[in-house]
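Human: Can I borrow your eye for a moment on a structure tokenisation matter? Separate attempts, laid side by side, tell us more than any discussion would. Could you pick a protein and write out its sequence and tokenised fold? No explanation is needed for now; the record alone will do.

Assistant:
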Amino acid sequence: MSRTALTLRAHDIPVQPNLQQALRERGRQLENFFELKTLDFTWKSDHGEVAIKKSVVFAPDLAGLIQVVQQECRVMLESQNHLGLDGGGGFLKLCLNIITNDRTPTQPPVSKKPVCGNRFRDSGVKKLLIVGILPGVEENYHNVTTLLDTVKFNTTTVPFSLATDVKLANILCGTMQHSSVHPCCWCEISKDYEITQDSVPQKRTLGRIRHYAQLYQQAKHQQRTARPAEDFAKKL
């Protein structure tokens, strides 16, 4: 780093004093917004679900983190918060992209202006912030809700849209997996159902998901091997 600074100064290019230390401090600028905590998660074994303890790195004050990032990157336009939930690569992680709105409803769509600089897209991995992550757990209802509850974002202070795959979409909705009789998170179609013009499957609602979740829990409590007539949901 010192040789680089000397080379730049030799060509009359100004270089900040103590550049290496400044870069090191800048790399840890958001450190105070993250915490490390050990929580209980579940893992499916040959003997059923077992509890395991895993360390989670997360941002407890998501609204404050977004505000600092916007100030640091001089975001002057209205922005949208896109949260992504994914379990790939051996980690369950919650990610954030801050995307600016740079047009009014009367203007035609244009490419989004980046939050910091103009080299990378707001929605790309170069602008992505990991706000919650833990290693080596399964994608299931308990683990996902534990991670989301740990981050503690409030939709009134942090409006957001969520992007995820169809497996996690079913988990978030509390419905059964895609090998079940009713695998879709958008409607109540059966996997053996043939759609015709006169018979369209009913759309899912939160109320119907809760209703069938209660039926499932009741049947599970009454008889461990019983399956409800409508295999819609297993969690509230």
Confidence is low (pLDDT under 50) at residues 103-115. The chain has two domains: 33-164, 165-236. Residues 165-236 form one domain. Residues 70 and 140 are 33 Å apart (CA to CA).
